[in-house]
Every structure is written in structure tokens, then in C-alpha cells.
Specification:
Elements (H helix, E strand, L loop, with lengths): L3 E6 L5 H12 L3 E3 L18 H6 L2 E2 L12 H13 L6 H8 L11 E4 L3 H8 L2 E2 L7 H7 L4 H11 L1 H6 L5 H14 L3 H4 L1 E2 L6 E7 L2 H17 L2 H12 L11 H8 L5 H24 L4 E5 L5 H12 L4
Parallel strand pairs: 1-4, 1-7, 2-3, 2-4, 7-8
Antiparallel strand pairs: 5-6
Helix pairs in contact: 3-5, 7-9, 11-14, 12-13, 13-14
Length: about 325
């Protein structure tokens, strides 16, 4: 039977490094659960696995969409579930490196689902039922001509159950609920729910003291700059235009401001660290709401062995 190990937590907690070590020991593949790593060419600013890391362990669900395209949660879920149902075999180019670990691989290695996008992870671990309605530009344009109070009143009329779950000042979810209703003719509340998978799942979370996490975020930001983030952003702006929505996301927006001459590079780094800390706080709040996750200290020097102890119990090596 398929088994799944989830490694989640806030940004900069070391999820990718731990996953790489575990995958090498297990002979496993890694499925990314990062909503920006799905896009091609957005590499340094998304902390995408490097070419050398991908040579060590096969990574999937990265580089699956052009920057001008859109990957919905439903799209991600469909592709991830297909990989879990029929896992790819590991080629010889990877098995040699994995054998250097000198550890016995289980006969049926688990898959590793790794990332910090909580909704992606929940779509798999909880089996979320997601209405397959792509963003409808014309409809959205019409709806956006109303203010939020009017949109929320419309939602209360067509889907009172959804309106009770959506805050009246939440324009994103209000608009999405109305979009689903007007495209399908059915309330979004009737199309949602969960159908958890029947395969075993071990959920591992990484966390650390906020002060230490802040230091890790600052160090990672410095590394991104050193690795060429400014050149990456400049290239993407030239190729796709400064109005590309992805260029308004964490790390890219701040460097874009620097390139426009609005702020200094030091200020761009400072803002990136600040905004990343704020984002990490939201991630921690999200993941802490799930009691199924077993938490480990990302700063623990024996982290790998402590996690391995739980992984070893989870997997049947016989």
C-alpha cells in the first residue's frame, strides 16, 4: 500500500534539506507542496531545489506551469493524487547516489510530500473536494464592479451557508464563492467537503523559536541575493513585464522595487526579511491547527535521527 510522509512547516525551517536526507535513505521521490515552485523560471526567490539536489532525488510538481499560466488548488491536487496513485519509478541515475547511504531501503518506499503551502497539503491529506472552476476573467470583471458589501449581500442570497463561513470583509473568498455559483449554478457549499485517503500518512512539522526563525530567514535572504536573485528578477521583468502577478509575490516584489530605483538593495533585503517573517507567522498559525502533525525542533542537531526514529516505526521494512 502507498504510504505518504508529509514534511511541513513555516518557510526557512529546513524542510527541503530534511526531505532530501530522508529520501536518500528511503529511496523515495519528493512531491513539492509549494504554490510558487510550480512555476518555471522562478527559481532562486522560491528556494526551488537546485539542479544538483534534483540529481540526487527525483522531484515532482515543480516547473509544471509557465509564469503566465495559473495552477489552481484543484489542478495541483489532481496531479499530486495521480503521482501518489501510481508513483514513478526511480531511474538508475538516482539509485547510485541513494545506495551510498548504506541503509536498507523499504521494499515499497513512501512518497514525501514537502512544502509550506498549507492548502496544497490539506488538499491531499484531507482529500478536499474542490469545485473545478477555473478563474473566469469576464465574470470576475463584472463582479468586481460592485463593492465588497454588495458582493457579500449577493453571496448571502445565493449561498447563505458559505456566507456564514466567509468573513464579510474577505473579498477573495466572497468573489470565489460567487464565481463558482454563477459558473456551475450550484452553491460552493454544496460542492465542498472532504474525502480523506485510505493510505497511511505520517505528518512531520518543523518549527523553532521565532527569534531563531528570524535569523534563518535573514540568512536565507542573504543567500538568495548572493545566488543571483537580483539578476533573476531583472530577467523575469524583461521577459514577462513588471506587471506579471508572480512578480508581486514575496522576495520578487521587493527586488522589483529596488530595480525600479524606489528603494536601496539593503532596504529591499530588509523588507524581504520583514515580509517573510510575517508570512512565516501565518504559516505557523495554519499548521498548528492540525493535531495530526508531530512537531520537531528545526534547530535540534539530532533532528534527522529523531525524525528517522518515527519514520522507521511508520514504515514496514520487512
Amino acid at each position: 500500500m502507498t504510504k505518504l510522509i508529509v514534511i511541513c512547516g513555516a518557510t526557512a525551517t529546513g524542510k527541503s534539506g530534511l526531505a532530501l536526507d530522508l529520501a536518500m535513505r528511503l529511496g523515495s521521490i519528493i512531491l513539492s507542496a509549494d504554490s510558487r515552485q510550480v512555476y518555471r523560471e522562478f527559481d532562486i526567490g522560491t528556494a526551488k531545489p537546485t539542479v544538483s539536489e534534483q540529481k540526487l532525488v527525483p522531484h515532482y510538481l515543480i516547473d509544471i506551469c509557465n509564469p503566465t499560466g495559473i495552477i489552481t488548488v484543484a489542478d495541483y491536487q489532481e496531479q499530486a493524487q495521480a503521482l501518489i496513485a501510481c508513483p514513478p519509478t526511480i531511474g538508475q541515475e538516482h539509485t547510485g547516489e541513494m545506495r551510498k547511504q548504506h541503509l536498507p531501503h523499504p521494499p515499497h518506499p513512501p512518497l514525501l510530500l514537502v512544502g509550506g503551502t498549507g492548502l496544497y497539503i490539506r488538499s491531499i491529506t484531507q482529500g478536499m473536494k474542490i469545485p473545478r472552476v477555473a478563474p473566469h476573467k469576464e465574470l470576475r470583471s463584472q463582479l468586481e464592479s460592485f463593492d465588497q458589501s454588495q458582493l457579500y449581500a449577493m453571496l448571502q442570497q445565493v449561498d447563505f451557508i458559505a456566507a456564514q463561513k466567509i468573513h464579510r470583509n474577505d473579498p477573495v473568498r466572497t468573489l470565489r464563492a460567487l464565481e463558482v455559483f454563477y459558473v456551475t449554478g450550484r452553491p460552493i457549499s454544496e460542492q465542498q467537503g472532504e474525502n480523506p485517503p485510505d493510505y497511511p500518512i505520517l505528518q512531520i512539522g518543523l518549527d523553532c523559536d521565532p527569534a531563531h526563525l528570524s535569523d534563518r530567514i535573514a540568512q536565507r535572504t542573504d543567500k538568495m541575493i548572493a545566488d543571483g536573485l537580483v539578476a533573476e528578477v531583472e530577467y523575469l521583468c524583461q521577459k514577462y513585464g513588471v506587471d506579471l502577478p508572480l512578480l508581486n509575490t514575496l522576495g520578487y516584489q521587493e527586488i522589483k522595487q529596488y530595480l525600479a530605483g524606489d528603494i536601496s538593495l539593503d532596504k529591499a533585503k530588509e523588507l524581504t526579511v520583514l515580509h517573510t517573517r510575517q508570512f512565516a507567522k501565518r504559516q505557523r498559525t495554519w499548521f498548528r491547527a492540525y493535531p495530526q502533525i508531530k512537531w520537531f525542533d528545526a534547530e535540534n542537531p539530532n533532528l534527522l535521527e529523531e525524525v528517522w526514529h518515527d519514520v522507521h516505526k511508520f514504515i514496514d521494512f520487512s
